[in-house]
Amino acid sequence: MRDEEEIREQYEFLEEQLESDEMNHDGVERMFTYYKRAIGWVLEEEHI
Fold it and tell me: Where do the coiled-coil regions begin and end (predicted)?
């Protein structure tokens, strides 16, 4: 189970990465993977 601080850190990391001017196709694909993982954590928290 993830705590709120961990989810918040993940969100901030994603935000920084998406704002980066160096984002390329691979980077965007990797960010979507992280995003889906973070969303999964939130949903996991709500269903437990």
Answer: 4-31
User: 29: domain range?
Assistant: 4-47
Residues 6+ apart with CB under 8 A from 6: 41
- Number of domains, the chain: 1
Per-residue pLDDT of the chain (48 residues; tens, 9 = 90+): 568 888 888 888 877 877 776 666 777 778 788 888 888 877 777 665
- What is the amino acid identity at position 27? G
The DSSP code sequence of 1-48 is ---HHHHHHHHHHHHHHHH-TT--HHHHHHHHHHHHHHHHHHHHHHH-
